[in-house]
Design a protein that fits this description.
With about 190 residues, the chain is of the alpha/beta class. It has a single domain, classed as Rossmann fold (3-Layer(aba) Sandwich). It has 5 helices and 7 strands, in the order ββαββαβαβαβα. Strands 1-3-4-2-5-6-7 form a 7-stranded mixed β-sheet, sandwiched between helices. β6, α4 and β7 form a beta-alpha-beta unit. The chain is globular and about 45 Å long. The protein starts with a strand and ends with a helix. The mean pLDDT is about 90.
């Protein structure tokens, strides 16, 4: 798979010129977003770290005939309140301006219970009007028999259809082929 880093944008004015269909990857800090992106790309394109909040802007990567857009994590990241506000404006600007955006993958740690930030993210994604899928990451940290119960619990708590979720793991590649199919159908 051919991959190429295109840009790290901390303002709307530095976004690369739209060219190919884009898929946004959003989620909490430490949800496994970078690991999943690297697994999907088949190589290390996104920086992984044990310290949440390392992505400091929108990272644009060309992955075959798509553009993957890695968003800064929300929630735990140790950044200033102003930086979080700037990231919110950047995200709103991206969703408002990018006509090439086709789909969003919401990276969600399968072990977490939804909290107010998650409900806020769901409302925000729905207000943007683009198709999204909740990729339930870190399934490798649970017993296989627990996966479906967690998937159902999260679907019910967030009031989304079970089919709008997918169990995945960047470590074991679980669910990545199904995720690729969903991404490419956009």
């Amino acid at each position: 798979m051919k991959c190429e880093f295109l840009a790290l944008s901390s303002s709307v004015s530095t976004f690369p010129k739209p060219s190919l269909p884009e898929v946004a990857f959003v989620g909490r800090s430490n949800a496994g977003k970078s690991s999943l992106l690297n697994t999907l790309a088949g190589q290390k394109i996104a920086r992984t770290s044990s310290t949440p909040g390392r992505t400091q802007g929108l990272c644009f990567f060309k992955v075959d005939s798509l553009i993957f857009v890695d968003f800064p994590g929300f929630g735990y990241a140790r950044v200033s309140k102003q930086t979080r506000l700037d990231w919110g404006e950047l995200a709103d600007g991206y969703y408002s301006l990018r006509k090439t955006l086709r789909r969003t993958v919401w990276i969600y740690d399968i072990r977490r219970e939804p909290d107010p930030l998650d409900f806020q993210m769901k409302d925000w994604l729905e207000a943007k009007g683009k198709p999204y899928l909740v990729a339930l990451t870190k399934s490798d940290r649970l017993k296989r028999g627990e996966w479906e119960n967690r998937r159902l619990a999260i679907s019910e708590a967030l009031n989304i259809q079970r089919e709008e979720t997918l169990i995945v793991s960047g470590k074991t590649r679980e669910g990545t082929q199904a995720l690729w199919r969903w991404i490419k159908n956009g």
